[in-house]
From TrEMBL:
Gene: ALPL
GO MF assignments: ADP phosphatase activity; alkaline phosphatase activity; ATP hydrolysis activity; inorganic diphosphate phosphatase activity; metal ion binding; phosphoamidase activity; phosphoethanolamine phosphatase activity; pyridoxal phosphatase activity
Compartment(s) where it occurs, according to its Swiss-Prot or TrEMBL record: Cell membrane; Extracellular vesicle membrane; Mitochondrion intermembrane space; Mitochondrion membrane
Gene source species: Equus caballus (Horse)
Entries under PROSITE patterns matching the protein: ALKALINE_PHOSPHATASE
Cofactor: binding details: Binds 2 Zn(2+) ions. Binds 1 Mg(2+) ion.
Protein name, per record: Alkaline phosphatase
Membrane topology: Lipid-anchor; GPI-anchor
Organism ancestry: Eukaryota, Metazoa, Chordata, Craniata, Vertebrata
Spans traversing the lipid bilayer: none
Cofactor entry: Ca(2+); Zn(2+); Mg(2+)
InterPro entries (UniProt xref): Alkaline_phosphatase, Alkaline_phosphatase_AS, Alkaline_phosphatase_core_sf
Family as reported in the entry's similarity comment: Belongs to the alkaline phosphatase family.
Keywords from the UniProt entry: Biomineralization, Calcium, Cell membrane, Disulfide bond, Glycoprotein, GPI-anchor, Hydrolase, Lipoprotein, Magnesium, Membrane, Metal-binding, Phosphoprotein, Signal, Zinc
Sites where the protein binds Mg(2+): 112, 223, 225, 384
Amino acid sequence: MGRRRQQRFSDSDNRDQGLEHQLTADYCQSLLFHPHQSYLWAPERKQVLERTMISPFLVLAIGTCLTNSLVPEKEKDPKYWRAQAQQTLQNALRLQKLNTNVAKNIIMFLGDGMGVSTVTAARILKGQLHNSPGEESRLEMDKFPFVALSKTYNTNAQVPDSAGTATAYLCGVKANEGTVGVSAATQRTQCNTTQGNEVTSILHWAKEAGKSVGIVTTTRVNHATPSAAYAHSADRDWYSDNEMPSEALSQGCKDIAYQLVHNIKDIEVIMGGGRKYMFPKNRTDVEYEMDEKARGTRLDGLNLIDIWKSFKPRHKHSHYIWNRTELLTLDPYTVDYLLGLFEPGDMQYELNRNNVTDPSLSEMVEMAIKILSKNPEGFFLLVEGGRIDHGHHEGKAKQALHEVVEMDRAIGQAGDMTSQEDTLTVVTADHSHVFTFGGYTPRGNSIFGLAPMVSDTDKKPFTAILYGNGPGYKVVGGERENVSMVDYAHNNYQAQSAVPLRHETHGGEDVAVFAKGPMAHLLHGVHEQNYIPHVMAYAACIGANRDHCASASLAGSPSPGPLLLLLALLPLGILF
Ligand SMILES: [Zn+2]
């Protein structure tokens, strides 16, 4: 133990001497519980202890106490678990009656980089934000009746990126990493391999079928995920012409922001970040006047906002907005087209969000659904929690997990505003990350807390959350950094990783697909990722497979199925 640490933690070292004796029940009690507070208080207290005066032994002692005392009283009774399982069984049995209605609406939530370990950790975080131990809590997506796994590899990559995967789950065709809205015949950065290899998305199919369509994201609206819905680009990084090589420009390829405004001119709702790509080079940003990096980027001198407005029919109401106040004061019933760009680049992390200028993802989703659901033909909405991925890349697990919690809130919001009878909702991720949590943490341990023991090798404590690689790799004096010396519960704490990398990488394992609503049961096993939009299109009777729709529409919508109709008519003698 170094001298500096001895000085800093001398208080806790005194306490340790007392802990060298046996851990009695009384001692556990005094360590963990305030006489007038419930057990729920204990994890917080443990966290405070961990952060302020930790010694490895103290962590171990508290951990041991917690495992004995943190079991919620009701969970000690087998009746609790049996009743809970029986209820789940009844719910599962009801699913044998399949929902084969035609999906009037489709909502797709895409958590960028939201692997299964991220979902579990976010669930625990959400529970802990509500003062529960956390493990038993349920995300909105957890309540979806059908779950499948999605194989995320790109045609040329075992561990994929967000562009090739977006092409798969939006266009129904697997593609090369780094490319959007084109088949695997297109090579990244090679503009001249684009033409003839364009593939269209479910947003396009929905538009053709007369539905309203929308895109809501927390990244820039021309980022990889949303761009596969409307663009065809050999390179996801061609945000504006400023980012394109001269060769690609001379070969006639267009940047993604340009395509957003020109390819499908009547997308009803577009919200996210990305203002700077819409304006001529060096145009001052409306919000960050002094920030040179926020200025317009376009070399062609176009003002894409003006172009966007000019394409809208005169009698329709189109609104361009750039801040939260404008969003919240909109009357959705008088808005036909909405373009909201709330940041020059990506939007802020939810934890850092400015509540005056930046709406939350749920606020954007609420407005989007209000506008889109005016169409009697229904709508397709793509919602991206786009910065889960960024939090992970930076090794900032707390940022990433709070992004998931906010997206989950938006999923609940959408669920409240729609019906499973006519709305298919799919929640999935494009790919995972090398994010993990472990270390035999006790029940209710802060998801950002420490494992209850020290390493038996380097004798130092470690956080439950770790990354396989990334910027959190830190060696101090030739040894792994002692995490008790740093504020590992800070919003921007970078969790330790095994391999140093400036940017943590994606993970290659399957991701989950959660589904509810018409035909959700078709997402039922281990699927290739490009299967997903085929199911959504089938459910909505748009795109390629529509043969089944003729019989479904006979029975009306929502459809009880022709057989039920027949049975209903029997007593009336109509058929005989
Ligand atoms: Zn990424």
